[in-house]
Specification:
Helix content: 10-25%
Number of helices: 6
Distance between the termini: 117 Å
């Protein structure tokens, strides 16, 4: 009997505790143990209000701000954010020209001058058309703004004024326009000459004039770029003829190129300039179009190669191979 009374007493106490604490922690039918309460709004939806934290949840949807697209915005003029001095790397604006070692005239035992062209449309030369710092634009603006002398030919003797350099490549064209008051009658159209200014985007090639010198003191064959010329294509009588805008002395260009950054496809941590591309690393692909000869003509203009462009390219490769074999045969193995 005593055991029965004890079991009934325990059961009664358990029901009392259950009634005080509810059916469980956080149950919606009872109090959750804290000071939070549920209020019913006018539209019937329940909103939970917490007096402990003071935060209110008024909607279950995420509010997204209006951002818009910026695909057509002007690109940042720099390849990276503005560089600071604290990153440990030198500023590109402080770039200096690294002069080649002194070379005595008596140590020059062999020299060969060649002309080669860089086609910026080739895959290996994509860095030349880097949108944030295209070298063809820099070279053209240095000449037309009068910062660097623009010479008439590769002799580097006579030069253009900046105004004359700006007019180089421009031409006049005849267009048909309607007569005022007779726009609907095509038989009343008149012809008018208009001037078409030259734009740097028309430059598709760069020509280099360089000397290959064998240094007797250091026993090496190395090139030195003498001058640079932008090349554009001009239509004359239905024929496409490549012409040089002007020639620029590399010695005048190097101080500007040393401060101009170029995209480095090999290492993002290494900053290189256009002076490094041309005069140190030679990170470009090119082909030879001319060498010193008795007639001083381009290979493509000679009679045996005039009608055969492939033969002209092979002749340029032959000149390149001759330079390689000359250096190779200087040594005994």
């Amino acid at each position: 009997m005593k055991k029965v009374l004890m079991l009934m007493t325990v059961s009664f106490l358990s029901l009392s505790v259950y009634g005080q604490w509810g059916s469980g922690w956080g149950d919606d039918d009872g109090d959750s143990g804290d000071d939070s309460s549920t209020e019913t709004t006018e539209d019937g939806s329940g909103a939970s209000e917490s007096t402990g934290s003071g935060a209110e949840s008024t909607s279950s949807e995420l509010t997204v701000p209006t951002i818009g697209t910026h695909y057509d915005d002007a690109p940042d003029p720099r390849y990276e954010p503005t560089q600071t001095v604290d990153d440990g790397r030198p500023l590109m604006e402080d770039g200096v020209v690294v002069t080649p070692p002194f070379l005595r005239e008596a140590d020059v035992k062999f020299k060969r001058r060649i002309w080669r062209r860089i086609d910026v449309r080739q895959k290996l030369n994509k860095a030349f058309t880097w949108p944030r710092n295209p070298v063809i634009k820099n070279i053209y603006e240095l000449a037309v703004q009068g910062k660097v002398k623009a010479y008439m030919n590769d002799s580097l003797a006579t030069y253009y004024t900046p105004e004359d350099a700006w007019q180089r490549g421009s031409y006049t064209d005849v267009i048909e326009i309607p007569t005022p008051g007779y726009e609907d009658d095509p038989t009343m159209n008149v012809f008018k000459e208009v001037a078409i200014p030259f734009v740097w985007e028309d430059i598709k090639q760069i020509e280099l004039m360089e000397d290959w010198i064998f240094d007797y003191k250091h026993s090496e064959l190395r090139p030195r770029i003498i001058a640079v010329a932008p090349i554009y294509t001009r239509q004359i009588g239905g024929l496409s003829i490549d012409q040089s805008l002007f020639w620029l002395d590399m010695k005048d260009l190097r101080p500007w190129l040393a401060k101009s950054e170029v995209y480095n496809r090999y290492n993002d941590a290494a900053r290189i300039s256009w002076d490094d591309v041309f005069n140190h690393y030679r990170l470009f692909d090119s082909y030879i179009v001319k060498t010193t000869d008795w007639d001083d003509q381009y290979i493509a203009n000679k009679s045996e190669f005039r009608q055969d462009g492939l033969a002209a390219l092979l002749e340029g490769e032959k000149i390149k191979n001759d330079l390689f074999m000359f250096e190779h045969d200087l040594w005994e193995y």
